[in-house]
Request: fold
Amino acid sequence: MKNKKKNKKMNKFIKTFLPLFNIVLICLMATYAYLQDSVSLTNSFKLALDEEPPIVDSFTFTKTKTAITMNITAHDDFRGIASIKWYYGKCDGECNVDEFTELPETIINPPATESVTESKTTIECLTYGTYTIYAVLEDEVGNKVTTDMMQVTLDVPGAENVSYDNTNSGSTCTTVDCALDELYDIYDN
Reply:
């Protein structure tokens, strides 16, 4: 009888504390697994913020008598170059923001982490004079860099660069020199 009472008490004890023991055991096992994964993740991944803008390797231009082509080579080692905005203005020296024209943006999709080389030709039929050009590069997270401003002079065309035909022009000029004088008067130069 004593043994039956002891067994009954033991069964009651086991029924009461076994679920609690199982919960504690499961919590300990989960904590151990989490710590193991945390150590593994810490060893496998590195967190870094991208605060660096793209790096411009070169910004150059080529020109004709009536057009300028801007050429840029750049790279971004983190998230990659996402876009390039191109600007030009007909100004010599100090230029106001209002004097610049923004050309259509070059979108690089997907962003390039390798070196990027792009060219952009401004509108054709630029008049002679001095222009200032530059570009703004942006990476995928919004870091920007602006190239140095460069000045480009499109030379005044000479008679050797122009052919002239006054058919249906309404002009009284019969020579290239006369036509150029008329053209210069139109542009007040």
